[in-house]
Specification:
With 404 residues, the protein is an alpha/beta fold. Helices cover 40% and strands 20% of the residues.
């Protein structure tokens, strides 16, 4: 099993601390594997096997404990001594009113709790007030490019250069299962489509009680077709109207909200650099993994700039940045990324093939008059120039950089 060290590092400072550790992310992104790795670390610390209670709540073995009371009674039956116990509960959203059970464990036992969940709204319900201030959420993403290289080194002995492997990443995305075997593009997309279908059914249609599945699919395809473009619910509604299909704007937002909840989409707000405020219209949406776009829409070479943006966006999120789309007068900055009071600005493009393209990508950043780092990221391997402090990165170099 390959260590996903970035997530273990995020969890370790909270081990044996009172906070509940909650790993969230799309299905098959690797949350269960992180739990297994954590269990291994606990055993290595000489924690007894009997003190570690591991439950996969999607397994039929635990079908009888999918409510708070039953889960509580089951865990209580496993706690035999006064020692500290470690609860590793996978896919906690399957348990009705799960927060009540978790709260009771904290009150009644000496426990250290680790949860996973496949819903981004897991902690936004009224019941989550039971846990207010007592949890830390750790987002788990599909593989970064750096992690893909680790997977390839582990599973395949043949050496490949980084350029070829980036093209592999660009085509197949980052779901871990895809990179544990030698899948063709076609078979990889079949696997990803099956993951996507499961997420749509279980984490979107069933959880949000969506009746018009065909309309939901159309909203998804609109969002995927516009990766890298700003749009609003009204834009979506107007598009459907032009296709002679009526949809209410509130329904559009409800569907987008459900897709965010299932981690199929990430919403990125716009930030007005002059007004210093977050704008409420014309947001961008990015896919949780680019392979989902290919699996549902086919190859989209014409969307290469948006796909590259999507990859860079996910890398910024993996590194715990808060990400915004920047507005500066009539210019757009692809990403303003903030972390611990520091910022970086990033423009993403396919190629700098003309003076116009160079002036556009560098010019937008040069119009920002502060001292924070500014980068243009493209697929131009040989462009090395910096312009007035704005640096250029070939995309794979940007993804592999230890820091920016």
């Amino acid at each position: 099993m390959i260590l996903r060290e970035v997530y273990l590092e995020a969890v370790r400072p909270f081990t044996d601390k009172p906070q509940i550790k909650i790993l969230t992310g799309i299905r098959r992104s690797g949350k269960s594997t992180v739990l297994q790795l954590l269990k291994g670390e606990l055993l290595a610390k000489k924690i007894k096997q009997g003190q570690i209670i591991t439950i996969n709540l999607e397994s039929l073995e635990y079908a009888d404990i999918l409510n708070a009371s039953a889960l509580y009674q089951y865990v209580k039956s496993k706690i035999k001594t006064k020692d500290k116990y470690y609860l590793l509960l996978d896919e906690i959203q399957e348990v009705e009113s799960w927060e009540k059970a978790i709260n009771s464990f904290l009150v009644d036992f000496d426990v250290d709790i680790y949860l996973t969940g496949s819903n981004s709204h897991l902690l936004s319900s009224e019941l989550a007030t039971y846990l207010a201030g007592r949890y830390v959420e750790i987002p788990v993403f599909t593989l970064s490019y750096k992690e893909l290289l680790d997977f390839r080194n582990f599973y395949f002995s043949a050496e490949q250069n980084n350029k070829n492997l980036f093209l592999e990443y660009l085509r197949k995305g980052g779901f871990p299962v895809i990179h544990t075997a030698d899948y063709t593009e076609e078979s990889a997309y079949k696997v990803v489509y099956d993951i996507y279908s499961s997420v749509i059914l279980r984490d979107t249609v069933q959880r949000y009680k969506i009746r018009d599945i065909e309309l939901l699919e159309r909203v998804i395809k609109y969002a995927f077709d516009n990766v890298g473009n700003t749009f609003s619910g009204k834009n979506v509604a107007d598009y459907f109207k032009s296709q002679h299909r009526k949809i209410d704007i509130n329904t559009v937002y409800n569907y987008l909200n459900a897709l965010e909840g299932a981690f199929i989409l990430y919403r990125v707000p716009r930030y007005d650099l002059k007004g210093k405020e977050i704008l409420k219209t014309q947001e961008k949406f990015y896919a949780s993994d680019i392979s989902i776009i290919y699996a549902t829409m086919g190859n989209r070479d014409r969307m290469i700039a948006g796909i590259l943006e999507n990859i860079v966006f996910l890398e910024l999120k993996r590194r715990a940045y808060s990400v915004y789309v920047g507005k500066l007068d009539n210019a757009e900055i692809d990403f303003i990324a903030e972390k611990r009071g520091q910022k970086i600005y990033v423009q993403v493009a396919y190629k700098l093939e003309s003076e116009v393209a160079v002036n556009r990508e560098f010019g937008n950043l040069l119009s920002i008059h502060d001292q924070y780092p500014k980068y243009v990221v493209t697929m131009d391997e040989f462009w090395k120039d910096a312009i007035e402090g704005v640096r250029h990165f070939y995309i794979s170099d940007f993804l592999l950089a230890d820091s920016w």
